Automatic annotation (TrEMBL):
InterPro entries: ARM-like, ARM-type_fold, HEAT, HEAT_type_2. Keywords: Repeat. This is TOG domain-containing protein. It comes from Physcomitrium patens. Pfam families: HEAT (PF02985). Residues 478-497 are annotated as: Disordered. The keyword Repeat applies.
């Protein structure tokens, strides 16, 4: 029989097969012969009713999922009347998946029958939500019980109150799914729900927004988004300040999933209240602005789109108008327990320095710089990296303010040239380059002094045994006295729930007191930071940078440690740039000294180092000239030059356009000479 296969799949233990059974059932019913469709629909209805009352939860889940498509099909009105009592009965089913499927059935019933479904189940549904709050071991703020227009809230819940307690998946057994069922029922009823928006309903849902369980908060914000969509305008206007306060709390949540749900609710609220949206900017603008840089991609992109929809082309002006409030918020967020939030705060402060009128933000720059200096000592390398980038913006926009902090800042930047993370080392060098271009003499002298110390350090590199990944990753292991932030697997306590990866959980580490966060820097890391700094020095003071070419040669010739090829990868990526800034005349005497290490790297077996050396050889040939370069090679090196796929073939013959131009010019000169001879004859 046609229905046997889909009905069998609806009881399967695997959810993907139950979902396939629902799809298959829908296909069978929609594609059936019109004369037989009514019969199949009646048979399917009877079998689905049996599934919804089955002992096995998988069968109940499959039954309610199938019931949704039967209701939306509209073929059995009597079944709709029988489904509502079953949905009410299983609203607090022991299995969460069944409870969610019940919510989908309520959506379908609301879609077909309208607001009468809500009238029938309202008391039971709201009681389930209230019981969820009453049954919590960790209660919310008591003032939330009176949190709406009829009984204005006297005290907004603090961030500490919201995030205290258990953040894990275990919370009130049915609270999350009951709130979700209410949301789906409202969506099903549509505009007809508008007359049923009451203060009791708002009060109940606002209470969910400050719940200790993050999944309840997330579902609560999604439900509030739907409620904003159907609430009368006078309700939103009279109570907009309170709603905005709760939305701001969600936009600042420690969990990105909750922030995303709050962003959905905020977009709905701001678009519904577009005529008077500016009344809420002081509360919502800072968080909306910061989430545009959040590390969670979905949240970041959604927030950027919301910003464009809500603010249009006036965003910069509005931020400048509320810049004091915005900066206060950024500073608070820079101390959050989530490293993604702190990183976003640094990017936002850089944006303030770059985009806001200096006359408006000038007096606030010292506070920005103090905060960035604190973030530059953060345990998370991404936060340090973002803070370093923001400081570079400060140098370019506010050199006088930066000059007052120059001794402290230079100490920090030089220290981070030896950071454990490569991008932090490179970014620190970029920032030092901006400082040298801005401050000139004194900054250049300080950079030269540091280069003399750090550039040769790799010669002192001694390999250490690795305890986890083998010798190729020896430097990634933490030293015995390392701190808790890098270099070892996190403990269950640090993982909070113990079931999620530490990369997905907010960091709970306290701010460090100094730069030595994870382990002592390796000598080769100091040398690599020096190479990055030398690149910047070659732009600002090429004559001073030329004196360090012998040190680069020594680095290239001093192999014998595990990370040698990592260091050479950096050297060969940057060497052509340094050579061009120093000039042919300065660099050519040292070219031959780099030849042997370069060609050794071309066949070293380390792919990244081979690619970097191939790039370097290609660029140097173009810079020096193919004939001059080839004259310094032995027969083996010439063979490698001809056969290596990593070397650009065009670099060995010169630029094709240049050659063609030269040929045309030569031909024109010959023709002109010949014509002149004919004329003379």
């Amino acid at each position: 029989m046609e229905l046997d296969e889909p009905m069998g799949k609806l009881t399967d233990r695997m959810q993907i097969k139950r979902e396939h059974g629902v799809t298959l059932l829908q296909s069978v019913l929609s594609n059936a012969d019109p004369l037989r469709r009514q019969e199949l629909w009646a048979i399917a209805t009877q079998r689905v009713k049996l599934l919804m009352s089955a002992q096995q939860w998988e069968s109940r889940h499959g039954g309610f999922c199938a019931a949704k498509i039967l209701v939306l099909g509209g073929q059995q009105m009597a079944f709709d009347d029988e489904l509502l009592p079953l949905a009410t009965l299983h609203l607090e089913d022991t299995e969460p998946g069944v409870r969610l499927a019940v919510g989908e059935c309520l959506y379908a019933l609301g879609k077909v029958q309208g607001i009468s479904v809500y009238d029938s189940i309202k008391d039971r549904l709201l009681l389930s939500i209230q019981n969820g709050f009453d049954g919590d071991l960790i209660s919310g703020d008591e003032s939330d019980q009176d949190a709406f227009e009829e009984s204005p809230v006297k005290k907004m819940p603090s961030v500490k109150q919201v995030h205290s307690g258990q953040n894990g998946a275990m919370g009130s057994r049915c609270l999350e799914t009951s709130v979700k069922a209410l949301q789906r029922l409202m969506e099903g009823c549509g505009e007809s729900f508008q007359d049923h928006v009451t203060s009791q309903l708002w009060q109940l849902l606002l209470k969910a927004l400050s719940h200790h369980n993050r999944f309840v908060r997330e579902t609560g914000f999604l439900c509030v988004s739907t409620l904003c969509q159907f609430s009368p305008m006078d309700v939103l206007k009279d109570n907009g300040g309170l709603i905005a306060s709760y939305l701001a709390l969600g936009l600042s949540d420690n969990w990105s999933q909750v922030r995303y749900a709050a962003s959905i609710a905020t977009r709905t609220f701001m678009r519904r209240t577009s005529e008077f949206k500016s009344d809420f900017f002081s509360k919502l603008l800072p968080a909306m602005c910061l989430n545009r840089y959040h590390g969670a991609e979905g949240l970041r992109l959604y927030s950027q789109e919301t910003w464009q929809l809500v603010m249009g082309s006036t965003g910069r002006e509005e931020v400048a108008k509320y810049v004091d409030v915005v900066l206060d918020y950024y500073i608070v967020q820079s101390t959050a327990q989530n490293h993604l939030v702190k990183e976003a705060a640094c990017h936002c402060m850089a944006e303030l320095l770059w985009k806001i009128d200096p006359e408006r933000i000038g007096s606030l720059v010292p506070r920005v710089l103090t905060t960035l200096m604190s973030c530059f000592k953060d345990p998370s390398w991404a936060v340090r990296d973002a803070a370093c980038s923001a400081m570079r913006k400060a140098i370019e926009g506010y050199p006088e303010e930066m000059k007052k902090l120059m001794p402290q800042l230079f100490d920090m930047w030089f220290a981070h040239l030896a950071d454990n993370v490569r991008s932090v080392r490179e970014n620190s060098a970029f920032t030092l380059g901006s400082a040298m271009r801005c401050f000139q003499g004194e900054a250049i002298e300080m950079a030269v002094a540091v280069l003399q110390e750090v550039l040769p350090q790799a010669k002192n590199q001694v390999d250490k045994p690795c305890c986890c990944h083998g010798s190729l990753h020896a430097t990634q292991c933490a030293s015995p006295g390392a701190g808790p932030h890098h270099g070892r697997p996190p403990s269950a306590e640090e993982n909070m729930d113990g079931a999620l990866s530490s990369n997905l959980l907010p960091k709970l580490a306290e701010r460090c007191d100094d730069y030595g966060f994870s382990r002592k820097s390796e000598p080769w890391e100091k040398s690599e930071g020096g190479i990055y700094l030398l690149r910047e020095l070659s732009v600002v003071a090429p004559d001073r940078a030329a004196k360090f070419l012998p040190a680069l040669v020594q680095l290239a010739q001093s192999s014998g440690y595990v990370e040698y090829h990592s260091l050479m990868e950096t050297l060969y990526r940057l060497l052509p740039f340094i050579a061009e800034k120093l000039g042919k005349k300065t660099f050519k005497p040292y070219l031959e000294l780099f030849i042997d290490p370069l060609f050794s790297a071309l066949t070293c077996g380390q792919r990244l180092s081979e690619n970097a050396s191939g790039y370097c050889v290609s660029k140097l040939i173009s810079f020096i000239g193919p004939n001059i370069f080839k004259a310094r090679l032995d027969s083996n090196q010439l063979a490698i030059l001809q056969s290596s796929p990593l070397i650009n073939a065009h670099s060995m013959t010169g630029d094709i356009g240049t050659l063609l131009t030269s040929c045309i010019i030569t031909s024109s000169m010959f023709n002109a000479t010949l014509l002149h001879m004919i004329v003379l004859q």
